[in-house]
Amino acid sequence: MFRSISILSLSLLLSASALAQSNFETAAPHAVIIDAKTGEVMFEKDARQPMAPASMTKIMTADLVFAALKDGTLSPSTEFTVSEDAWRRGGVKSGSSTMFLNVNSKASVADLLKGVIIQSGNDACIVLAEGMSGSEAAFAQRMTERAHELGLKSATFRNATGWPHPEHEISALDLAKLAQQQVVTYPEFYPLYAERNFTWNDIKQSNRNPLLGRVNGADGLKTGHTEASGYGLVGSALRGGDRRIIVINGLSSQTERRDAATRLMEAAFTQFRIYDLHSKGVAMGNVEVYMGKASTVPVALTQDIRKGLAVVDRKKVTSSVRFTAAKAPISKGDKVAELDISVLGRPIETFDLVAMEDVERKGLFSRAWTGLLAKIRG
Length: 378
Fold this sequence. Notes:
With 378 residues, this protein is α+β, with helices and mostly antiparallel strands. It has two domains: 3-17 and 276-377, D-Ala-D-Ala carboxypeptidase, C-terminal domain (Peptidoglycan synthesis regulatory factor (PBP3), Domain 2); 30-270, DD-peptidase/beta-lactamase superfamily (Beta-lactamase, 3-Layer(aba) Sandwich), CATH 3.40.710. The chain has eight helices and 18 strands. The protein has helices at 58-71, 84-90, 109-117, 122-133, 136-149, 172-185, 254-270, 364-377, and strands spanning 3-6, 30-35, 41-45, 79-81, 106-108, 197-200, 203-206, 218-226, 230-239, 242-251, 272-278, 283-290, 296-301, 305-310, 318-323, 326-327, 335-342, 349-355. A seven-stranded mixed beta sheet has the order 1-15-17-18-13-12-16, with no helix packed on it. It has a five-stranded antiparallel beta sheet with strand order 3-2-10-9-8, with helices on both faces. A hairpin with a 6-residue loop joins strand 17 and strand 18 (349-355). Helix 2 packs antiparallel against helix 4, helix 3 crosses helix 4 and helix 4 crosses helix 5. The longest helix is centred in the C-terminal third of the chain and has 17 residues, at 254-270. The chain is elongated, with a radius of gyration of 26 Å. The chain starts with a strand and ends with a helix. Residues 1-20 have low confidence and may be disordered.
């Protein structure tokens, strides 16, 4: 069994439960903030559980198109034909969000992307899916595969639009990671998310993202709503050199979504910080050594540990070392313990601790004497 010891070098060690919620609160049932530069999670609330993403799905649809444009498989001028199915299921007759494409007409990839991102057009999504993969089902399978390639393991997509389906889901955290990936990988395409309106078929529609023009630095990404998902949003904003990405979902109205998103994004910049908790190569404590010429060995991390935290939660981070008595001989760099980091509202994270120096094994007589003492003490 592992034993625990406190880290003497850390002054702020309190007995906080990792399962307790952060002192920061939001009305959104699902919520997350991440720092785009580092990928650090700064806040989360039920963010790892798969949920219905509604039209936030279209960020993944756009991702496949961006990738095809970047590798030359598609060009912005490539045209696809609007099938009757795309027109009927994604058009005005369906009562859903639409680009107002006409059946049997053609539209370029550049215009269809604007229809997807700015107008949230279901018809545009289906036309792209059919044009790129032959069918929406095949495109959705590729969406899932691509998500898993990116490490978004919670994702399963059954369509290109976000239309309700019991198996169509992704977590808020994975949506945030997807948004981060697009900011980093597709800087030439990402500005589409900040465009305020787009006109097609003489019908002008505005971007539905309530953060645009309302929150300083906001430049993306996508809203979503179905009865199953509630109202949600993936948002991003850049201030100075810092970019924050938020995801919320499960709210009951557009007004509640707008207010929750605005508050969370403002808080992301004003109430959250990235803290350096521990540095690699710095002694974290001493671990007992069995049968060693030295009775203990100092241990250290092999990596720096940084965490995004609400300022009010900083003093409630708990760190502890878990170890079994390491058996000599030990070489410098051998793993001999583990460090647990507990942050409010998040799963406990574990990091390896390695020996900072060699410890030779005791001689034969000393080992025998140590073994005898151990038997006497039981």
